[in-house]
Amino acid sequence: MPDDSHAMNNQDTLTIGTRRFGSRLLVGTGKYRDFEETRLAIEASGAEVVTVAIRRTNIGQNRGEPSLLEVLPPSRYTILPNTAGCYTAEDAVRTLRLARELLDGHDLCKLEVLGDPHTLYPNMPETLRAAETLVREGFQVMVYCSDDPILARQLEEAGCVAVMPLASLIGSGMGILNPWNLQIIIGNAKVPVIVDAGVGTASDAAIAMELGCDGVLMNTAIAAARSPVLMASAMRKGVEAGREAYLAGRMPKKTYSAAPSSPVGGTIAPTAGKAA
Asked: What residues contact 139, with CB distance under 8 A and at least 6 apart?
């Protein structure tokens, strides 16, 4: 049963590892038209955590080129380096070691090891192997995974600070296709569960939060919208509304039993007609 005291005292923060955040929306930085659009969209989203594909985005490794950190400074945002584009545990671990050097010892990271370049579905054996190595090396690992409750539990047992099951395939915009598996993962997890991949619009984000997810991470849903800045604002509201609805506790669903929204007890009964 959700504790509505969080909503009452405005202390409903998201804790990931050793860090706390006010926003439960995490956003990616790829696929925008330019860095300026990236900046405007992320500001509109209200996100505090922004994830960066180290293999595709310059954060200092390419000297002389514009750096994303110039428009999204680490003093304002928590930069979450990710391993997008990695297909082996070794590549993922190597990429995050580089990110830690570039970000002055930053240990919070997003791990993803892909198994298929067409679907971008995760390779879970390689993901688990990489997670175990990174945890041993002191990383705080947030991990992209399939919506398999057993694998999610194994990743938590390996020491990951958040599990991030897909709602549907990366970039598909199909929304949450298997809410039952997500609910099993949420019910069993002792670390935050953050939906990662598949969200297409604000209602998808709201549904994820209503299910009890601790947060939502997205990129394409915002960046590929006709107006990324406006969609970022909509996603912010969707996440907030879904979280509030979860904390409030929805009314039970009823198959047949209709109930009036206004009480009928004590109302004035209609008078019977009199014969002329």
From this structure: 96, 100, 107, 108, 109
